[in-house]
Amino acid sequence: xxxxxxxxxxxxxxxxSAKPNKTTFYFDDDLSGFGFYRTPGDVGTWFAxxxxxxxxxxxxxxxxxxxxxxxxxxREAARKAIAHAALGKDLAKDRADGRASGTVKELVxxxxxxxxxxxxxxxxxxxxxxxxxxxxxxxxxxxxxxxVDVQKAHDxxxxxxxxxxxxxxxxxxxxxxxxxxxxxxxEGTNPASSIDRNKExxxxxxxxxxxxxxxGDALREAETIGIPHKPSESKHAPKEKNRTIxxxxxxxxxxxxxxxxxxxxxxxxxxxxxxxxxxxxxxLPDSKTGRKTIVLSAAAQAEIESLPRVxxxxxxxxxxxxxxxxxxADLKRPWAAISARAGIADVHVHDLRHTFASVGAGDGxxxxxxxxxxxxxxTATTQRxxxxxxxxxxxxxxxxxGKIADAIGGK
Length: 411
Known about the structure:
The chain is an alpha+beta fold. The chain is built from 16 helices and ten strands. It has three domains: 2-99, Double Stranded RNA Binding Domain; 104-181, Orthogonal Bundle (DNA polymerase, domain 1); 209-232 and 240-392, Orthogonal Bundle (hpI Integrase, Chain A).
């Protein structure tokens, strides 16, 4: 909480400063109860706080968004709200009743903007709202949405993307729980609960040694002479197939995913400033599981050292060396072409992380060590590779069976 003289200039300075890690409140030093707050999603909202009657509990009402409502206008609205409260008028209740007419889209938008979360999560939720929830039930009044409507929407979503449909239900459910605590919907209202979701099977696809060798060949081809385009069916197509050459940052990203077991965004968002060359470490400030340190192998460090340093990020993007440089968005197109060339089109980029773990497990490395390398927050996550770790069990089986065979006179 901070106290300042709220003016157009001071508010503008606050909104231009670094984004807060959590929702931060700013109160006016003149009008008690008047202020604004800024969320991690960089949304500013004016508010007024007051007690409707003497001794009653304090209430807060939103007055409007910073940028939409001027500071002077927000101050005047706050004066009126506080004055009405002194006369016994409960404006907070009136506002709550008004919010009840909001749509599902608006409820989820408020949740995404007001809930503390990582920016990557916020972006994912925004996309899920736009592509899954909004087309089916976005315009429905939040208080009028029925569980049967949600189930029908989920069934329709599932025809195109079964897992994404489940993610949409999780987001919708969380938004209703959050909204009920803040008066957007009545307590106990959650039409997204108890929905029959699609069964999700854990994917277990690891590259074999032969597949890794073919992928290596495809990577070398991609960065030298290029991957040939698919042949055209037209009789007028040139005999010489066109090729696409992928630069060292694309092929380097794929190799680093294989050599480190990192997640895609951990590699694509990696900055040169997070690479400790002397100690052979990656010092990631904000991964999926929080701040963590990646211990690099000699091969992984050699791959990083081979990449041209042309911008902020180790894996350069199209915006490299520009004022608003951003990390590469994804590897979808190059991975599709390179994996197809290697004859492993059924392999996803995330399967490279699984491959890293499976190779370790297959060589008898302990699951505890693998979990530490992959920074699994839950040891149960690492247990999925237990069936690959057959060497210790085979050794034990041989020892036990050997004694029994000796006792019974085995062959």
